[in-house]
Amino acid sequence: MKRRGILFMAAGLAASLGTGLWFSASSAEEAPRLVAPPTLDSRPSAASETAVLAGGCFWGVQGVFQHVKGVTSAVSGYAGGTADTARYETVSTGSTGHAEAVRIRFDPRLISYGRILQIYFSVAHDPTQLNRQGPDSGTQYRSQIFTTSAEQARIAAAYVSQLDGAKTFARPIATRIAPLRGFFSAEAYHQDYLTRHPTQPYIAINDLPKVAALQQLFPTVYRSDPVLVAGR
């Protein structure tokens, strides 16, 4: 049985028993918080820009950014490996170099790259976790920023240094930064997963709180109606 299938069962059991056992696996995680915006940010120079971010299971990361104003598309997929291994069954082995990632297309006239990163570090995931997020572990769940330009690389590196220097988190940031070599869309059944399965225990416990945190901490950029892959 796949790891997430086991986790769904464990989540359901914990919920039915009311024991809170599900939360013990991620008790060391940093809670969502509003971190400081980057001091170095981009200026709009085009009508569209792309960010590719990895932060654990792509279901939650996609779900968060689908609720952000200015985001025109958020697609779950794989980055860091090659096209021939960009399949869920293969990526799940942790041996492909891929991370579960989300390609975010946004209008920089409405939201900046720095703001995208602020949301990423604040609510989309815990950037101090190394090769894991919550109940999921393996290199495919690593925290990584795949940059699409030299400017993005400068902004991302400066922001990580800024947050670490300010000791924003209790532990050092584990997020990697590397140029994007290719992004490969995930299978159709992974797209819009949070929206299509809001009552699934894994989603309800691990991912819906991220969307709630986005609404609470970033009310000016939160959109109630998500921009869906199925609606492109």
Automatic annotation (TrEMBL):
Stored NCBIfam families: msrA
Protein's UniProt name: Peptide methionine sulfoxide reductase MsrA
InterPro entries: Met_Sox_Rdtase_MsrA_dom, Met_Sox_Rdtase_MsrA_sf
Cited function: Has an important function as a repair enzyme for proteins that have been inactivated by oxidation. Catalyzes the reversible oxidation-reduction of methionine sulfoxide in proteins to methionine.
Record-linked HAMAP family: MsrA (MF_01401)
Gene3D superfamilies: Peptide methionine sulphoxide reductase MsrA
Family classification: Belongs to the MsrA Met sulfoxide reductase family.
Alphabetical UniProt keywords: Oxidoreductase, Signal
Top EC class of this enzyme: oxidoreductase
Catalytic activity: [thioredoxin]-disulfide + L-methionine + H2O = L-methionine (S)-S-oxide + [thioredoxin]-dithiol; L-methionyl-[protein] + [thioredoxin]-disulfide + H2O = L-methionyl-(S)-S-oxide-[protein] + [thioredoxin]-dithiol
Keyword Transcription found: no
Keyword check for Signal: yes
Protein origin, superkingdom: Bacteria
Cleaved signal peptide residues: 1-28
GO molecular-function term, one example from the UniProt record: peptide-methionine (S)-S-oxide reductase activity
Originating organism: Labrys neptuniae
Coiled-coil annotated residue ranges, if any: none
Active-site residues, record numbering mapped to chain: C57
Domain Peptide methionine sulphoxide reductase MsrA intervals: 50-202
EC numbers on record: 1.8.4.11
